[in-house]
Design a protein that fits this description.
This protein is mostly helical. It has helices at 2-48, 60-77, 85-109. The longest helix is centred in the N-terminal third of the chain and has 47 residues, at 2-48.
């Protein structure tokens, strides 16, 4: 029983480490997003003046990259129904069950 508890605790620790790694990746992604977009917008203002802020093309990069940021956050926070750990586990179980059924069917045919 003690071995089981230690194994369970180790699994929880590994999941926590993986979650922290994903969160760190998101923070790095977000920081790069802010820095790069500030640089881009600053360059546009310096080169084109303040009138560039009224041009829709000015906001393409921040908008579409921002959608990527939202998707990344959704994945990290677990609020995205697809591609979460639960989704991965369900898919693994589904394919394992399918393999088991196919193996049993094959053995029955012999």
């Amino acid at each position: 029983m003690e071995n089981y508890n230690e194994q369970y605790r180790n699994e929880k620790l590994e999941r926590a480490k993986e979650k922290i790694k994903e969160l760190k990746g998101f923070y790095i992604h977000f920081t790069v997003y802010v820095i790069v977009n500030l640089f881009i917008l600053g360059s546009i203002v310096v080169n084109s003046g303040w009138d560039a802020f009224f041009n829709i093309g000015t906001y393409f990069t921040p908008f579409f990259w921002g959608l990527g940021i939202v998707g990344h956050y959704s994945k990290v926070s677990g609020s995205l129904p697809f591609f979460s750990k639960d989704w991965e586990n369900r898919q693994i179980e589904k394919y394992m069950e399918k393999e088991k059924r196919e193996s049993e069917d094959f053995l029955k045919k012999k």
